[in-house]
Amino acid sequence: MTSLDERSAQTVPERGVRIGHREIFTDTASPVVNPYDGVLVGRVANASAGAAAEAVELAYRTLDQQIPAHIRAAILDRIAELILERKPVLANLICAEVAKPIGSARAEVDRAADTFRLAAAVARTHTGRGVAMDATAAGVGKIGFTRQMPIGVVTAIAPFNFPLNLVAHKLAPAFAVGCPVVLKPAPQAPLTSFVLADICADAGMPEGYLSVVPGDPGEISAVIVEDPRVAAISFTGSAAVGWHIAGAGSRKKVLLELGNASPAIIESDADLEQAADKLVPNAFGFAGQTCVSVQRIYVNDAVAGDLRALLTERMSRLGVGDPADEQVLCGPVIDDKARHRITTAIGQAESAGAVVRAGGGVRPDGILEPTLLTDVGPACDLIREEIFGPVLSLVRVGSFDEAIALSNDSKYGLQAGVFTSDMSKALAATERLKFGSVLINETPAFRADNMPYGGIRESGNTKEGPESTARELTTERLCVLNL
């Protein structure tokens, strides 16, 4: 095996700061390293505040160069085609940058293509409405209608865990309604954003609609967040950072998609085999590094032992290891800092009386084993905080009401799942669970890219999905004609 220094000397992608279709290189660059084996994946330049300001200025000027909706739609459709044509390159890059298992990386590429297709439909249909002016005497003799106008320049700040599709969810609907985007990609996974930017240019996206400015937040945040030419900020990531940005970006539209401590309720009448089949891959896939990964299960005491046995059996067959292996579903967490945070939380839970029933250790290759705990107290971080790792807490409850109450006892409110064969309980759950989405006989990790996805409380303040985002990124203009 070559040393890190030797690997660093090998040819790797070098990307700059992309201002429209122009790429510039700065005095400093940051390495992008595979979290699994430490191999250097590439290097990306660090944007200066001046370069970020140049990107914002270009985007702001682009607002005066609107192109017709049918052309925007055609470009979005072409982007989707090119994404699928370059699927092997994109999937392998996602796998290398963030150690996402290769099968999951391919699925993300497919989803990103869907997201652009859905946005193309938005471009063709997102329009205004007629206003019945003669509904009052003052409006007689007038015709009223509304037009949906682009809100302006959008800053997009993306997370590492979906470096292609979550960028697509910010870029595609913005372009559909005519908003240029200045993108700050995740520092762990900037290369995927550059490949997507190449695709957008190849598909015909005009100069100025997308710039990519990687770099130190301390250097560029004041520009991309606080610049008065930025009209909207779209952020996906941690709650602490998201709400800080919301405060710094006052008087702007701030769209936040934040964290969760996702609960799943398992009733005694549930199909336990189905529940286990869904819960295990959705708790431990990609090492639990999605904001809706299953984190806490509230299971009726009558079937708790049976469910635990089913979960541990399926965990024993879970593919764990090198994310480039086709059989692997769970690889490493993103870095050593994350692994330390998660193992510390497990240790604290054990000290408070929790019992590790499976996993709990760190393998020789550095991968944190998928971990199942029982007897986890309600005050533990494994219950209260977003763990963002391959850890699942199984909590016994005596009733449906108790499960609902414990699920709601959280500062988060993104998605929750319920497994039951009782329709009355299912409907009651949709009424009583205080979350942005409630899924019946499905895990809280489920997401289709056209659905309105988003939470309440600390989980965010908006709904994402091309149609939902397009509404957020447009303003309604009333037009009145006096006849």
Architecture overview:
This protein is of the alpha/beta class and 483 residues long. Helix content is 39%, strand content 21%. It has helices spanning 4-9, 49-62, 69-85, 87-98, 102-125, 165-176, 190-202, 217-226, 239-248, 272-284, 304-316, 336-351, 381-384, 400-408, 423-432, 466-472; strands at residues 14-15, 17-19, 22-24, 29-33, 40-45, 130-131, 142-150, 153-157, 181-184, 210-212, 230-236, 253-257, 262-266, 294-300, 355-358, 371-374, 391-397, 412-413, 415-419, 437-440, 456-457, 474-482. The strands form 6 sheets. The chain has a 7-stranded mixed sheet, sandwiched between helices. A 5-stranded parallel sheet has the order 10-9-8-11-12, with helices on both faces. Strands 1-5-4 form a 3-stranded mixed sheet. The longest helix has 24 residues, at 102-125. It is globular, with a radius of gyration of 24 Å. Residues 1-10 have low confidence and may be disordered. Pfam families: Aldedh (PF00171). This is Aldehyde dehydrogenase family protein. Residues 451-471 are annotated as: Disordered. Residues 460-471 have a biased composition (Basic and acidic residues).
Main beta sheet strand tally, sense and closure: 7 strands, mixed
List segments where confidence is low: pLDDT < 50 over at least 5 consecutive residues. 1-10
Q: Helical stretch count?
A: 16
Strand order of the largest sheet: 15-16-17-14-13-19-20
Summarize the structure.
The chain is built from 16 helices and 22 strands.
Keywords:
16 helices; oxidoreductase; alpha/beta; seven-stranded mixed beta sheet; globular; 483 residues; Aldehyde dehydrogenase family protein; 21% strand; ALDH-related_metabolic_enz
